[in-house]
Amino acid sequence: DAKTTQPTSMDCAEGRAANLPCNHSTISGNEYVYWYRQIHSQGPQYIIHGLKNNETNEMASLIITEDRKSSTLILPHATLRDTAVYYCIVRETTGFQKLVFGTGTRLLVSP
Amino acid sequence: ETGVTQTPRHLVMGMTNKKSLKCEQHLGHNAMYWYKQSAKKPLELMFVYNFKEQTENNSVPSRFSPECPNSSHLFLHLHTLQPEDSALYLCASSQGAASGGFGGELFFGEGSRLTVL
Predict the structure, then answer these.
(1) By C-alpha distance, which of B108, B45, B87, B47 is closest to A91?
(2) Any CB–CB contact under 8 A between A1 and chain B?
(3) Cα Rg of chain A (Å, integer)
């Protein structure tokens, strides 16, 4: 079962920052937070992951609260091509790290 | 281009047909996965192979039969399917591990869209 809660949908204007929240209040100390996205009719694409500290890469930033019970994925300058379903997933750091997808957040970026 | 190639991209088959989906990865990974995505449902993990050994079978009906001849290729053999098996079937790969502790980032193919008539 998915261990995260995300809003069903969000809208964002092109060029603005998109902030996608995720609640994972039952996360344990040995679980990472992963984000993937799925553009329509394509396979999911890895975006970023983190354990405790905030992370940034060329695609996005991940902000994890100090108690690790929630996180926010930030797309700093959303484009139309960022329209997709965004999945927040928690997975263990040891053993077989199964990815369990929930229903995600459908982000619509508009002109 | 993710380095994971799935064929065919689209497949229509009758309930009595036998067909196969193919997945090939060019990333040097040792773990491969099949996921199923039905309309308006989350992705469901079906099978996992680590170094050619099946390590996960998520209660998948026997009409789906996976095969992993080597670390670069993964097949899903289909026979006597039902209309409710119509879905997008996604293959993924990742770094494997000789003794557990594998997964990391998964790289997905574009998927094979299956329609069962």
Answers:
(1) B45
(2) no
(3) 13
Structure confidence by residue, pLDDT tens digits, B75-96: 999 999 999 999 999 999 988 7
Burial string for B57-66 (b: 16+ CB within 10 Å, else e) reads: eeebeeebeb
Sequence-distant (6+) residues with CB within 8 A of A38 are A44, A45, A84, A85, A87, A104
Main-chain dihedrals φ then ψ at residue A49, nearest 5 degrees: -150, 160
State how far the Cα of B7 lies from the Cα of B5, in Å rounded to an integer: 7
CA distances in angstroms from B113 to B21, B39, B85, listed in the order given: 10, 11, 11
Q: How many CB atoms lie within 10 A of CB A22?
A: 25
Show residues of chain B in contact with A57, CB under 8 Å.
Answer: none
The H or E element spanning position A76 is none
Rounded-to-integer distance, Cα A101 and Cα B9, Å: 22
Nearest to A102 among B42, B48, B101 (CB): B42
User: Averaged over A41-60, what is the pLDDT?
Assistant: 93
